[in-house]
Batch of 3 targets.
Target 1
Amino acid sequence: MGKKLMKRAAAVLLSAALLPSAATAYADAPAMTGDLNGDGSVNISDAVLLGSYLHGRMQFTREQFALSDINSDGSADSLDLAALRFIVAANSGRLPHGTWIASDDVSARYFWFDGEKGTVTDEETGAKKSFRISVDGDCFTFDYGDASEEARVSWLGSKAFNITWSDGRLETMRCYSDGPLNYDDLLTGQWIGSGTVNRVYDIKGVNGSYLDTGTNKGTSFRYEKDGNDLYFHTGRNAGTAHAVITPVDSVHIDLAWDDGTSERLTKHNVEQINGITYVNGILIANKTYDLPSTYNPGAILPEAQAAFNEMKAAAARDGLNLWICSGFRSYSYQRDLYNSYVNRDGKAKADTFSARPGHSEHQTGLAMDINMAGDVFNNTREAKWIAAHCAEYGFILRYPQGKQDITGYKYESWHVRYLGKPLAAEVTDSGLTLEEFLCIDSVYKY
Ligand SMILES: [Zn+2]
């Protein structure tokens, strides 16, 4: 009989251990199976209570009866007592390993455990504290050097446990990753989502909010990222949503939610430094974002010039001669150029082919016109070679055909922008313009 009991108990334990992989284990659980005295922990005192009940020494409430049915066979009996004792014994003395997130309704903290010591990092302040940890049954002792604190632990499966601190505060700790916390791995920043749902996300650490741009409704959340699994907790009642993350490139990730919706997120970190706009670290000059008149590198930047020289040498091996017919253009040069076009053709027409001062990509020192800046260059062997090969040298064709509404400029087969090889390859492979790739627009705001 003992053997049979152990088998049942082991099956129960196994199912408890498997629980956390299901999204439900992350939901704000109400009462916990086995926690008969409602202290937030499943431990030996619950087993004592169940024993008293089974021996007729006490009455159970309806809720206690339900929580006692550990093997879910519809009754609270000696099998449940054996299963409960087994769970208590198996979890007794167990210590977490890796990075765990402790959260209650107001705050989140990261705990890193290596078995005997660790660190706790406050999400809001970033303050770190080291500790040594020891375990005695279901009691953890955190020794911070100058102070120590005891806490009682109740495992909710292999990847989550409740912890009740000496001041009575209850937190749920969930496994975040096997290794130390890597802040680069978090989704901190702003993201623009497009797909079945359209949202703008603002994420910091493990907290965030998103605005549904369709309904204009904002939602706050706390999330856990465990490898390519993403768990969103949106409050006590809304529960947990799970998505599988597929990284696309350095700027995009795809999310496939369990409800069948999917989104592509585009990183959207727009910074203004000394009046210069960087989107995800990429210097941008277009009709939306202008450069200050004081930004004046004086020439094509050395890295872009070296990349052009390399491209020119490669083209020469294919029997083609490439040269820069217009490279760096200063703010004042562009101002005079634009004004001369306005005088000749009018403002509306000039805006289709010439940038207003501050808005020319030529002022960046990262853009250049090759051989001939005019439609006669289209379809030449040189233009075709540039379109096919410029990404190999870190350039993109900045104003492709048919994208005038997006880039703000008509097709220019001669104008390339230096991005560096990895990014130029990503943009080219995406088939998108730089504006589409970064989810930005190019429209004069004045
Ligand atoms: Zn140009």
Note: The two ends are 84 Å apart (CA to CA).
Target 2
Amino acid sequence: MGVDKRNPIAVVGGGLGGAAAAALLQQAGYNVAVFEQASTFAPAGAGIHLTPNVMRVLGHIGVGDALVGSGCLPESFTSRDLASNAVRTSLPLGSRARESYGAPYLTIGRSVLHRELVDALRPGTVRYGKRLVRLDDGGGAVQLSFADGSTTEASCVIGADGLGSQVREGMHGAERPAFSGQIAYRATVPGHARIPVDRRCITKWWADDSFVIGYSTDSHSDDYYFVAGTAADAWTHPQSFVDGDKDEMLDAFDGSCDEVLSLLESCQSLSKWPLFERPPLQSWGRGRVALLGDACHPMRPHMAQGAAMAIEDGVLLLRCLGLEDEVEDAFWRYAESRKQRTARVQAVSADNTWLKDTEDPAWVFRYDAMTIEPAPRRSGALSVT
Ligand SMILES: Cc1cc2nc3c(=O)[nH]c(=O)nc-3n(C[C@H](O)[C@H](O)[C@H](O)COP(=O)(O)OP(=O)(O)OC[C@H]3O[C@@H](n4cnc5c(N)ncnc54)[C@H](O)[C@@H]3O)c2cc1C
């Protein structure tokens, strides 16, 4: 029962979703290789929230304890008013997260998470310097062609190649992601800086068209990470991010409370990012090729769920491969199992209202990708589950 585990599976893109999917597949006995365009993975300064729904999966992969040892377990997610610093609401986390949602809520350096996921793979699984330029699905096998002129064949392909996915483009044609009308400045404030924030909590300050969110990412350091988002007419740079200008950022946040201004002033260097998005996609795959993560459902970062959704995808994909004998049926069932949840998370992320006022986050945090019932089988599927 299930797709033959000996057939080679190619994962295109070794980012957070691709590395997690490959680790899950490999641990379940599948023959998997990851083709990544970068020549190596450079550490990035960004932070990331790992909410209980994704910590559950990361624990299953076997990296949960290492992540908890390195990251921070915030005591709360506290919402404040950007102009006055007044508290709007506060969601208890810390030990309460484990009690309420079954797993911890962690904040950590994004590159620490990525390193743990890549290290969970057998050596040699990631083939670096392999930028996919073309896929040819010949029915029984898929040929992958890379920018360096090399080719390889796989029984099926998982497109985990992120926002500008080449795999997606091969299926649906070239269509650039839409600029959301927001940009975000990201920076880390050094631990010695005296900033009037509670480092034990995640704090998000809200205004109508801008926000600042700050938190600690390293249990061994007092560094403090923040993202400051505001409206912008367009993103005109060819790069996915550029160096930020502190005066420009401070101008954009003029009128904010002293606590936020002091935080923004304390950073030494910063980067500036466009926030892109795409509407929900109806077709997540074609034949022996399926999409995962930002390649099919990129979202604004306002729920901190982009990587979480990519990693949850990997679990359902793995489970569906085990439930169906034919790859095409497994990929169809996987997509049907994930579309509703990811579309809802995309919509709430676009609204930027998550945890602004008191709400119950259980529908996000309690989701258990390992036990949730997958969508029913496709009618006419050849396999017997
Ligand atoms: C400001 C900001 C804050 C965020 N905060 C959070 C958070 O707190 N929590 C959270 O869960 N998510 C967060 N996210 C979202 C998260 O970073 C993404 O959703 C997540 O990285 C998606 O994973 P992915 O594997 O789909 O794509 P990526 O991680 O982008 O990986 C794609 C990989 O594919 C490779 N690639 C691309 N094209 C090719 C090609 N042609 N051939 C071979 N390889 C290729 C790339 O080099 C890359 O390694 C945030 C995003 C932003 C912008």
Note: The two ends are 7 Å apart (CA to CA).
Target 3
Amino acid sequence: MTTASTPRTSPATSSQTDPLQLIDVDHVRFYVGNAKQATYFYASCFGFQFEQMADLTTGSRDAAHALMTQGNIRLVLTTGLSAEHPSMKHIAHYGDGVKDVAFTVFDATAAYDRAIKNGAESAYEPVETKDEHGTVVSAGIKTYGEVIHSFVSRHGEYELANVKKGGRFMPLFEKVKSFALNDHNRKHPCGLKFVDHLVGNVGLGKMNHWVAWYENVLEFKLFKHFDDKDISTEYSALMSKVMASGNNLIKMPINEPAHGKRKSQVQEYLDYTEQVPGVQHLALRTDDELHSIAELRRRGVDFLTIPEAYYGQVWERVNTMLKAHGHDVVKEDHEKVKDLGILVDSDDEGYLLQLFTKPLQDRPTLFFEIICRRGSQSFGKGNFKALFESLEIEQERRGNL
Ligand SMILES: [Fe+2]
């Protein structure tokens, strides 16, 4: 059994009366050292369109913001223009990374009020930005580390449906008139569709604290497809639980380090963020893993190298499980999967293909996962062993094992 990519936006229904009804990932804001240069990295390596910009030329006096889009993914790259801007302090301590995982909601003020009532700490109170095109209301709450969740409600031309069609993102943003890579990317798409999940790394012993936070504050649930036993093998040395919004639209696994034979990858992350938790990876969904990985590799994306031995066992493991549950076996060409170094895993609902990039910046912190689901709603647990062997090779190269 295979399934096509699920539509990602929650329909406007009677649940509009629920203030924490999340419509979509509005955008993910990265604080970066140099937004202008980062646009080239995300455009050239990952095929994002550099669509809109807010900077000195558009009236943004304190920071430059670049909107990068692909499918229903919106990244905002933000760089402050002075040492006083919060982004520059953030970068000094933690390097480039995710600051804000923003959710589109029907009423940002109502969502914020409800979250605060549920015990959230405020990051910033509701602000309304308005011009002749419409209104955007944003309000933020603090989650783990220095990461925040903004609630964003959009009106007039700024409604999300318009933004998805290339309409204006927010006041002060203007269309980028010429950027040669945009044409190239239209002709050579990478096929990334939407944010499948976002993973946070938190400190030792803190996973359950943040699980409870997502339950209480954002009214998330432990994801039902996930067996909630902690994942911890002698290799994996991490524990993880997946939290999902009420409609399962937004999934946020939370990792904590665990003691293993070697240093946990989660601990290595924390060692480069002054032990401050943060977003470890964004999983970006594709309908065609082979095409996406081939195109990303052609563009020079650096992926984790999967040990050759992995492919000696994977088909037996994955296809046996699929047959046992009455599903078709993996339809992708096995040789191509191996040549492209892609990971495969299956569960009672189907299978998935996934691959992880190396860190996106010099610090071994944030990375991307490229994932394709064929029925499976899990996260590649069967790949942990192979993955950790691969990660350990990289940690060893960095002298951090
Ligand atoms: Fe993931």
Note: The CA atoms of residues 229 and 241 lie 8 Å apart.
